Amino acid sequence: MKKQPHKKPQQQQLKKGLGKFNNYIRYISLSTEMIGAMLLCAWLGRMLDQWQETDKPYFTIGFLLFGVFSSLMLLIKGLKKISDDNKRRKDPDEK
Prior knowledge:
This protein is mainly alpha-helical. It is built from two helices and no strands. The protein has one domain. 82% of the residues lie in helices and 0% in strands. The chain is elongated.
């Protein structure tokens, strides 16, 4: 049997380079989730206002506030996960 050449330094460099882009992609996905949640809630509120034929946009305001709070919860949860992942990468032995 022939032994495969050891390519560990190249793999480590590749992972290190991709790690920088990985964080950017995570931040972009968090912002997209926030915008999507708020837009969906605003659209649902608007549809309910039209369906119920309300004088003022009560449903739109209510659903938009719900969307803002839910998107903030998604943001906090996502940032905590990113922070924990970054800590694990720096200190793999520590738990």
